[in-house]
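Retro notes - structure team

What went well: the batch runner handled both jobs without manual restarts.
What didn't: labels got mixed up in the shared folder, which is why I'm recording both outputs here explicitly, each with its sequence directly above its tokens.

Job 1
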Amino acid sequence: MLSTRIDALRRESVGQRATPWMIGFANFYDHWRWLTFLPVAVPLWAPALMYLYVYALVYGRWPASAWRILLPGTVEFTFQAVSFLLPLSPKLHWANIVAPIAGPIFAIALIVAFALQAWASLKLLNLHGSSDRYGHLRCFGSCGQRRWFGTWRRHSHQRSLE
């Protein structure tokens, strides 16, 4: 099922975010300087995969515009991969130059991406979430997992009435 595959990718993307921190605390970067820019964590893929997961639940297919949704994460991965492939001395010099610039840019991009994808996901759920229509959401695991959507709709509707 497509939604299950996307959910696995989403979980993997979020889980990989901890890898650079764990190896950093273990002093890997001090002992193996060549690990700088190792492209194991691409946080900009997480919000895109979360939206694609919601989209797959609602429609049961991959959106035609998926490549645009994955583009920010692909840019971040490409930046990391190309920087990682540099020889050690130029890589360390490049890291000193680009870290104060790229770090904040990717952090702001991540905040904006999460905000946009959350807004788009909520919009998608609200547009396609009337009580008579959420039954077509694709099941993964057991179909009892659809209940989260009905609960979300009830709470969302109650808040809008208050």
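Job 2
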Amino acid sequence: GNVYQAMGDYEKALEFHEKARTIREAVLGPAHPDTAATYNNLGNVYQAMGDYEKALEFYEKALKITEAVLGPAHPDTAKTYNNLAVVYQDMGNYDKALEFYEKALKITEAVLGPAHPDTAQTWHNLATLYYWVHDLEQAVRYSDKALALHERVLGPEHPKTKIVREANEFLKRRST
């Protein structure tokens, strides 16, 4: 399903993620971390389609499982918090997005450390959020942190680093 989503074929992506969900629920059970991963995948497709309510539904299912089975301080829980934050941000609910980004950041910094790509991704996401709420000082602050970490961990030529660098340059132009 992820390949079809990347290609923009959302109907096919949903079809394959639904098949995976059916299998995982039957074989592993509805409260298994792999089932939660499938719920996250379904949420990702619905989010890409702009169906935010459906995306939230699947992300919340994933969150219930990850919190209950893996715990509230697990990296998979942080990823689901990030997914929820992005949807709320897309919906314009910036307070709710900030709440979930902060939860994700607390976990990634504590569990994975401040030098992990997931931490950098959360900083980048926070930079984007702060841009949308017109707090350019905070946006640049988080973007600088994200860029420095991406360059150090992934290298200056990595595609993610290039995206973060472009965003950082944009934010700096806007803040002057």
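One thing worth noting from job 2: The mean pLDDT is 95.
We'll revisit the folder naming next retro.
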